[in-house]
């Protein structure tokens, strides 16, 4: 007859044939847990209840009687339900044969099993102490017996493995002495006292420090009766639930972090004007922040919190492009930012331009869990961009017109010079030569005068060429070219001119800007020479931290600021400066001369 402790043990237990692992016997807990009746179980083997048994068979067969190691597997119940279990294998003599004893624990059901079964099992008289110790020593749980004096009378071998202490050192020792530093000792003593006095079976969770870490145990305290029905001791069965406690703590931590994250998300959604959204792939619920309702005119609670609502409000011409882009992004599993621009329908039926951005949150299996993003109405922004572009185009047109005007002016000036001056000089030279052909007496004098006129024409052409393309800019630089221009003005005797600039100025100004500044100096000097009736002219270059400045000052008759007309000359100066983000300022009044200031930022 099988030992009653095996039959009534609260943990599922099987006795297996060592050769083919067929089930020879199963206790009541195994029959109840796996939902087979006893006859059905005895017709089966471990192959019928262990998932992927084939890959495990060889390893299973080599277990020794002293291994007592925990093994985690997946078992299949009668109804097809798969459960993760932990079991311990040991050898046992059954019907005079060496067989395998398999003790199974299921962390999800253990507490219920203990509370339901342990009292009945352990309150009965243990007929044979040897059988009790054989089963207890091979159990995965810690089993202890404590007498009324709270002394340990029995501790199984599992205790030694977990706590790294010899059982022989503890037998006969008092619970209080051994555990006096344990903070859960008062709870244990109170529970033990209740079991002794009331005969109830109690379940508690206690924490006990071990050499490697603090472990947590689910302990069942059940009364043990003598032959007279008097409680003489308590059986304590403790199951290590440290992993469960750690997992629960981690879950609580993640839940708290998720709550805080959701709170931060909702606060951010309220604080920003953007339409914050959050899509849950599992529930397919699309949450919209307050910014969505304020931007697009919808009323909270009156729109569907579904993906279909968003999709149906995309402009038909762009719907396929946007949804295909999003599907491809999700399929790719990218950790980058998804971004699309499209038109979205407001509550009043009008479509507005939006920019939509989203980021996918994956679970530990790299499966898309949530997608969080923001949608912003950029209609006004795009309108401003178009306006700026138009203004830039208009500005470029004005610059082009000013340049063309300046070119036309220069051509007109060149034509006037050629027609009114050089043409007349050459015509006179030709006339002298014609007369010299027939007048032998005056021939040499006429040829000499013709040569003088031709030389004068050459000088005039050189002067015009110099004003158009100054050869000294590329060879000498801006400072020397302006200095050459000022020297020619002084040689004319019409006006006294001076030029002043820093020595290293040319090195900081690109060549194209040097030519632009030289043209500005030319333009303003010509204006002064023709209209100002000035006696003195000063051209000064200076440099500050992030810009350089050209200042041209004369002491001429000046003019009123209200009468400034942006003629071709002034427009040309302003247009040249604006090409390099420069500004032009004019300071003048009647009788006080004029000052022209051109400021150009560095690093243009």
Task: Provide a quick synopsis of the model.
The chain is α+β, with helices and mostly antiparallel strands and 604 residues long. Helix content is 45%, strand content 25%. A hairpin with a 5-residue loop joins β14 and β15.
Detailed description of the structure:
Helices cover 45% and strands 25% of the residues. It is of the alpha+beta class. Strands 2-1-5-4-3 form a 5-stranded antiparallel sheet. It has a 5-stranded antiparallel sheet with strand order 7-6-10-9-8, with helices on both faces. The radius of gyration is 51 Å and the shape is rod-shaped.
Q: Cα distance, first to last residue?
A: 102 Å
Q: Helix fraction?
A: 40-55%
- Rounded to an integer in angstroms, the radius of gyration calculated over CA atoms is 51 Å
Largest sheet: 5 strands, antiparallel
The best one-word shape is: rod-shaped
Number of helices: 20
- Strand arrangement within the widest β-sheet reads 2-1-5-4-3
Strand content: 25-35%
Q: Poorly predicted ranges (pLDDT <50, ≥5 residues)?
A: 110-127
Overall average residue pLDDT: 80
Oligomer: single chain
The number of strands is 20
Could you say which structural class the secondary elements and strand pairing correspond to? alpha+beta
